[in-house]
Amino acid sequence: MTSLPLPEFKNRLRREAFARRDALDEAFRHQASQRIAELALGFHNLENVTPVGGYWPIRSEVDPRPLMEALVSRGQNVALSQVIHPHMTFRLWQPGDVLVPGGFGVQEPGPDAPEAVPVALLVPLLAFDRRGGRIGYGKGHFDRAIAALEQRHRILTIGLAYAVQEIDQVPVEPHDRPLDAVITEAELVRTEPY
């Protein structure tokens, strides 16, 4: 792939992915988030699954709120991520709930919101490939959360991304667990194992 050491290579891929994602204009990102929600709602594996873990968007991430609101409307529980470094927990969320500032500028449910253990997880990302490889922000919060949830039960992991975030191959490390699917504004990608 490259002669760079893996951490440097991943950081380069992160910078490039941020640039591609940040270059998308706000109107496009809004429309794409709506389309991603539509495709996700038609994903059979996500039907009747509850609770679904989600996240509050930052920067230019895909906005999962249209999808999360629709999931709640059809009777599924949604739990938002809450970072308590170095770990992540999930707390139940309903549209209209008051959120509080959390780590990294992310809005989170308050400490009184009930904790939940998701059986499906919506995952933000910077880059992905068709085998389910994912590059995140490099802090490992979602990687650790997925590993902890997998200790309890199998979890359905769904990356939410714009099509421009796809790359040929994500460098994979032993601790990486491939995503089960990635949903972009263009398609639902059912990943193939490495």
From TrEMBL:
Its cofactor is Mg(2+). Keywords: ATP-binding, Ligase, Magnesium, Metal-binding, Nucleotide-binding. It is an enzyme of class 6 (ligase). GO terms for molecular function: 5-formyltetrahydrofolate cyclo-ligase activity; ATP binding; metal ion binding. Signal peptide: none annotated. Its EC number is 6.3.3.2. Substrate binds at residue 61. It catalyses: (6S)-5-formyl-5,6,7,8-tetrahydrofolate + ATP = (6R)-5,10-methenyltetrahydrofolate + ADP + phosphate. Belongs to the 5-formyltetrahydrofolate cyclo-ligase family. This is 5-formyltetrahydrofolate cyclo-ligase. It comes from Microvirga alba.
